[in-house]
Design brief:
Elements lengths: L10 E6 L5 E8 L5 H14 L3 E6 L4 E5 L6 E6 L3 H7 L7
Antiparallel strand pairs: 1-2, 1-5, 3-4, 4-5
Length: 95
């Protein structure tokens, strides 16, 4: 996904753990959203909340974070509806 473009079609912001369980509800971004702005705002949000940011990839439109012994999270922009993606994998929302 091109982070330097605006959203065309469906783009979702997802938060997953290492087992690909959703750990926060996914957010559907409206068409025309500045993807770079969303990505950088999320990265800074986690930084300001005390999470350690690592594993940044602009090619995958994703970064990873960890905090105080918690399993790491992966934050990513994806094009397909995550509810369909994770249902098809047999993975539900993390509780």
């Amino acid at each position: 996904m091109d982070l330097f473009a605006v959203a065309e079609g469906e783009v979702w912001l997802v938060f997953t753990d290492p087992l690909w369980n959703l750990v926060e509800p996914a957010r559907k971004l409206p068409p025309g959203t500045d993807l770079l702005e969303v990505f950088l705002n999320e990265l800074l949000r986690f930084h300001h909340l005390g999470w350690r940011v690592h594993g940044f990839s602009s090619n995958e439109s994703a970064f990873c974070v960890t905090k105080e012994g918690r399993r790491g999270w992966r934050v990513a922009l994806i094009r397909e509806d995550p509810s369909l993606r994770y249902v098809s994998r047999g993975v539900g929302l993390a509780r």
